[in-house]
Amino acid sequence: MDPIDVALLLVRLVLGATMIAHGVNHWVGGGRIAGTARWFSGLGLRNGTLQAWTSVVVEIGAGVLVILGLLTPLACAAVISVMLVAGLLAHRPNGFFVFKEGYEYVLVLGVVALALALAGPGEISIDSAADIAIVGWAGGGIALGVGIAATAGLLATFWRPQPQEVPA
Fold this sequence. Notes:
By secondary structure, the chain is mostly helical. The chain is built from seven helices and no strands.
């Protein structure tokens, strides 16, 4: 067995499990869907409940696809989009470091997803077994392009931040 294929499997397992954990947490953790909806609304996203359920479905779905190595560029696009939205709306104002609620963590997950799309899922994947793996610049381009387009579409459709009050 090629060590590169094992390395790609390890990356897929960790990235996919992380995304599934995020989705499950939005669903049943802490404030459940209602709390997640309030959080999304607080970020300036309209239809907080729709956003909460969408995040659950996208994060769990992308995680499963990444683990399986199925439709890898599209699964990675979903990860990239989720991380872009999180980075732009929730973490960017806090700077880089994760311990200050910065964008460090979401940047790493997004770049790992892009690197996986570029490298491909490896031989230990459904994409490879079905001979449908799209790798290299094509895989990376699909992941990045679809991820950015999905983010832009979400923000254009649902993001309506409230103006900040300036103290008198």
